[in-house]
Amino acid sequence: MSHEPTVKLVDITKRYSDIVALEDLSLDVRRGEIFGFLGPNASGKSTTLKTILGLVKPDFGYVNVLGINVEENPVEVKRRVGYVPGSPRIYEFLTGLEFLDLTGDIYGMSPAEKKKRIEEYLEAFELEGREGDMISSYSQGMKQKVVIISALIHSPELLLLDEPISSLDPRSARIIKDLLRELASDGVTTIMCTHVLEIAQALCDRIAIMHEGRLLALGTMEELRERAKMPESDLEDIFLQLTGTGDIRPVIEALLK
Amino acid sequence: MNWKNVLLLISADVKSYRLVSEERFRRFREDRFVTYALYVGACVFGVAIGWLVGNFYSGMEDPQLGGVLLQVAINFFLSLPTLALLYGLVITQIGQIQRIGVKASIQPLHWFPITWKEHTLASILANILGLPLAITIFISSGIAVASLFLGVVPLAVLTIFALLFSVLLASATTEASKVLQVRLSGAVTKVAGRVAIWVRFLGSILVFIVFYAAYFSLYRQATTLALLELIAGGQRMLWFIPYVWPGIALSYFDSGLGFETAILSLASIGFLYAIFLAAVRLNSRFGLYEAPAIRLSLGEYAPRTGVLEKLGFFPLEAAVMRKDFKALTRRRELTYVFIFPTMLVIMPFITVINKVPEFYSFLFVWLALMPGALMASSLGSYMMGLEGDSVWYLYSSPITARSLVKAKYSFTVLFSLAVTLVCSIIGGLLAAPSMGIAAIALTEALFLIFSLGMVSLSFGIRGAEFRELPRPRMIRPKWAIINMIVCILLALAIVSPVVLYTVKLFLEAVQAPLYAMVPISGVIAFVITYVFYRIALKNAEEFLIKAEG
Predict the structure, then answer these.
(1) Is B439 touching A (CB cutoff 8 A)?
(2) B515: how many CB neighbours lie within 10 A of its CB?
(3) Weakest mean pLDDT among A61-70, A158-167, B19-28, B440-449
(4) A250 falls in which pLDDT band (50, 70, 90)?
(5) What mean pLDDT is reported for chain A?
(6) How far is CA B318 from each of CA A132, A142, B307, B404, B524, rounded to the nearest angstrom?
(7) How far apart are CA B27 and CA A12, in angstroms?
(8) Whether A111 and B304 lie within 8 Å, measured CB to CB
(9) Closest-CA distance of chain B to residue A180, Å
(10) What's the gap in Å between the CA of A76 and the closest CA on chain B?
(11) What's the rounded Cα separation, in Å, for the pair B185 and B273?
């Protein structure tokens, strides 16, 4: 695995009026790494992904992706990245096939390559037979599969996935997990946000825990255990300890009153 | 019936129309003045008109003329319930069709303890908010003030009640029919299969056109007093149609027939209640109905190179244009984009045809210029907003501002040219214009389409509105108004050399051939197009950066 950073965030700060979305965030993500962002709701995970893709312009700091300054050349970055947003809405008046065809054209794929990749992915995600139906008739999970395929078909060098497995069936979730590992061994970098701690623990090489826009901890599972001084604990305990949200007993008691 | 639930549902509907701009996104506070400005404005305007009419009547010295005016006013009062029913039906139906295509499955109704009765009543009342209520307030305040001068206060008071009642009746009818429309559309989809898209598209346009044709033909006629007299006098003959009962009740009251007035009023209330119950029944039966999936392609996937690539568009630009074409033909809520150009073709025939012999000499020019120009100036403003909730896909795609503007502008121009072509053929067949007139009209049409398409696109990018619920707006109202005003002014500037030429005084002063004016139009159009291209490009660059908003 090369140690050349695929993504480099330097002193990123982003504010929305009086809300601090990201504060002084600096980190490197290496080539071929599966990198996980964990954190409570509104902790800045999705904003970080959007900043990496150039969808959010930081107030301070800069982002380099694949050696390109995102602010200077966002289009080139987008060309080489696959993105799955959280709760994506896609053109419901298109069929699944038409949406993937559109994606192939937008990313400049050749017709032969497009056909091969689309057919492979449709089969893998069991969308065959429904690909000609309008997306408006798809279930949430099917729509999520279409979005994931559209992020993958153009063979990106970097994947930015915001809760990619949230509404997938177990088989498709397993395919994604195995696929990400295979892609990582081929040098594709993945940065994902998730609330499913088991997935992060099993899949990610390194994990960043965020809270209120700040990076609380960053490292491998072992490094996080050391940091939290919880050598035998799993990620859930470490997460709750580091984010200060571990003591939930009073909350439960209050709710049960 | 839990009235609190009804009020809460109406309140939620009203709030769904809020336009929360980015700077006011947090800690949003209702601007009550803005919320009620439409109604306050309608009321003030109505009072002013009523006061003017009243003063005009009071100032009349000829008692005979005064009598005529009074009779016209009374006829107007008597015809109002039926007219209100018509405009209520048209506006609520249009609103319904605009909403119907949006899949609004997130309705608390589905899991909150709300009954279908409460939901239906809230929907009926919410449907009359906005334009129907504003028109009703305008007319009511006008006739209330005028009646003080005319001395017909009791009739005016009853008219106001009948007016409100008729609008409510229209809304209830729309509520009942909307579920049937969805169910019917689903049945058609199931039977038609792949053709369903076109059946649905053409069907929606047809429904629009029928309503608009009825609306415009009536309102064109309503400027003459004949229609008022016809409705006021003729509605008693239509006693078997319950929808005219409020109007008949009013005419009985005017004739001093108290008993008949009471009977008809009660019957009207009974009819409204029956419609309401029918709407409740239909909602409870089909309210959760999901139309079947439309399957558009079967068999092996074979990517093809389209015509657009052959015309020199990059695959990315062609892909965006193909996607936009599908959006306009498949999203029912967008079909109204086609309505106004279609109405411009039909409108002249509704009232003028067979009455004015010179009509045909203007027909070709009208059809060559207006529908295409209107299409360019409206479609361009919608092109960015029609991305809707899926706009993230454009933001995250490797598309440059230049390609985005090129794709959206080319689509607007090509579509408007197609409209102009079709309308010109119709106009040519009907009017058989001379070659000279046809050439000049078509050249001016091209100038208008190319320039107004760019003007409206630049405003469409700047003022794009992506929310799809409760209905897609596509452009924020402020920018829609700015676009409309600027397009009208610039269109006048473009055609002014040719139009001015036809003015006799100008003709005498210049003494130049008509053809000499066309290049001047072209230069004006070119300058406008170039200036607004730079603006559109700048707006697109900002648009692609401001994804966070």
Answers:
(1) no
(2) 13
(3) B19-28
(4) confident
(5) 87
(6) 21, 26, 9, 10, 29
(7) 26
(8) yes
(9) 21
(10) 7
(11) 27
Q: How far is A105 from chain B (nearest CA, A)?
A: 5
Q: Which chain A positions have a beta carbon within 8 Å of B326's beta carbon?
A: 91, 93-94, 98
Length of chain B: 549
Residues of chain A contacting B28 with CB distance shorter than 8 Å:
none
Q: How far is CA A207 from CA A56, A167, A178, B5, in A?
A: 22, 22, 18, 47
* Residues from chain B contacting residue A137 (CB–CB below 8 Å): 292-294
Q: Which helix (H) or strand (E) holds A101?
A: helix A96-106
Chain B residues in contact with A57 (beta carbon < 8 A): 545, 548
Q: Please check the confidence at residue B408 and state whether its pLDDT lies above 60.
A: yes
What gap in Å lies between CA A191 and CA B163, rounded to an integer? 62
Would you state the pLDDT for residue A1? 47
The residue of chain A with its CA nearest to that of B196 is A134
The amino acid present at B241, given as its one-letter code, is I
Query: Residue A75 and residue B294: Cβ atoms within 8 Å?
Result: no
Distance CA B273, CA B284 (A): 16
Coil, strand, or helix at residue B174?
A: helix
pLDDT of residue A195: 82
Q: Do A56 and B302 touch (CB under 8 A)?
A: no
Across the interface, whether the CB atoms of B293 and A92 are under 8 A apart is answered: no
Q: What is the DSSP letter of B193?
A: G
- Please name every residue paired with A217 in a beta bridge, in sequence order, or none if there are none: A209
A98 backbone dihedrals φ, ψ, rounded to 5°: -65, -40
The one-letter code for the residue type at B522 is: G
Q: Tell me what pLDDT residue B442 has.
A: 92
> Is B396's CB within 8 Å of A137's CB?
no
User: Which amino acid is present at A230?
Assistant: M
Nearest-CB residue to A94 (from B323, B392, B398): B323
| Burial class, A177, CB count within 10 angstroms (exposed 0-12 / middle 13-18 / buried 19+) | middle
pTM here is 0.79
Confidence at residue B19, expressed as pLDDT on a 0 to 100 scale: 59
The helix, strand and coil proportions of chain B, stated in percent and rounded to the nearest 5, come to: 80, 0, 20
Structure tokens at A52: 């990496």
Query: Rounded CA gap, A63 and A28, in Å?
Result: 10
Strands (E) located in chain A: 5-16, 19-30, 34-38, 60-65, 68-69, 81-84, 158-162, 189-193, 206-211, 214-219
pLDDT tens-digit profile of B58-85?
887 777 888 888 888 888 888 888 888 8
d(CA B459, CA B478): 10
> Model confidence at B221, in pLDDT bands (50, 70, 90)?
low
Q: Which of B452, B439, B451, B458 is nearest to B526 (CA)?
A: B451
**B81 touching A, CB under 8 A?**
no
Residue with tokens 């657009």: B308
Partners of residue A16 on adjacent β-strands = A19
Mean pLDDT of B245-255: 86
CA B436 to chain centre: 35
Q: How far is B137 from chain A (nearest CA, A)?
A: 39
Residues of B in contact with A22 (CB under 8 A): none
Res. B106 pLDDT band, cuts 50 70 90: very low
Residue in A with minimal Cα distance to B547: A55
* H-helix or E-strand spanning residue B464: strand B464-465
Query: HSE on the CB side for B205, CA within 13 Å?
Result: 18
How far is it, in rounded angstroms, from Cα B447 to Cα B452?
A: 8
- H helix intervals, B115-257: 116-128, 131-150, 153-192, 196-222, 225-234, 245-254
